[in-house]
# Entry
Amino acid sequence: MRPLVASIDLAAVRHNYAVAKRCAPGRQAFAVVKANAYGHGLREVVTVLADDADGFAVACLEEAAQVRAMHDSARILLLEGCFEISEYRMAAQLQLDVVLHSVVQVEQLLASELARPVNVWLKLDSGMHRLGLDEAALRDCHARLEGAAQVAELNLLSHFACADERGHSVTELQLERFLDVLDLPFDQRSLANSAAVLMIPAAHMDWLRPGIMLYGASPFAELSAAELGLQAVMSLTAELIAVREIAVGETVGYGAGWQAERPSRIGTVSCGYADGYPRHAPAGRPSGLQVPACRWWGGCRWICSRLI
Ligand SMILES: Cc1ncc(COP(=O)(O)O)c(C=O)c1O
# Structure
């Protein structure tokens, strides 16, 4: 068997979700489990959070259906909304919370005949400039959706661009723009991703949307996960599958990216970018890499990922 194993510590997911909740007492939190729970396993993460999470946030209907099959009462937020008009009926059947980030989506929802109304999250483009309505369009859409037969709750959502850089002026601007539309009647409001959950209490609103912090990673370059009280969820272990001696001046790896300045013993681990190891990781030992009991020799100077 190839000696490369990604271990997932599901207890750490529960711990990290509890950290998010402790940051904002009294608020609810969608555990962001999109993209197969950031690669950690949707089924496993939803199962371990089943009793704790107030809701789950996913990227598409297929993921939502998987979560609904495991959890018949959780709120499930479709972060990008529906991709075509036919999906609204399914969203209603699955009792999803649906983001509407464009006028087209608003019109498609209003043109749909649904078995039951859905909770709608109107997305404000507060400054990220990827998805969302500007203020004028949002006000217009709010008026069209208020009281519509397809709408249960009418909610407001936006997403930060720079919350992971503390004190960034864009974050302040985004918060202001969010607050500016709160003269409209909304049932629920949601703004905070992980960075804002951890550092911006004014952005907590009614529903948090922690993603990366659930998996034990810090959103901040200058603060470690441990400093934030987070526990790592994934650990990757491997064995050296070859060790060789390299003479001074010889190079190692793709692009001949590392050159021996002295006679060097080189260990190769069977793990590369096809496995998800960053293609452009710098040479040398990545932070967090531990070399426990090397059966070859404890003193290899460099652990090289074999880039396959
Ligand atoms: C709309 C939305 N909310 C929340 C999140 C979670 O963000 P983070 O992983 O920074 O916590 C994401 C992730 O991309 C997102 O797209």
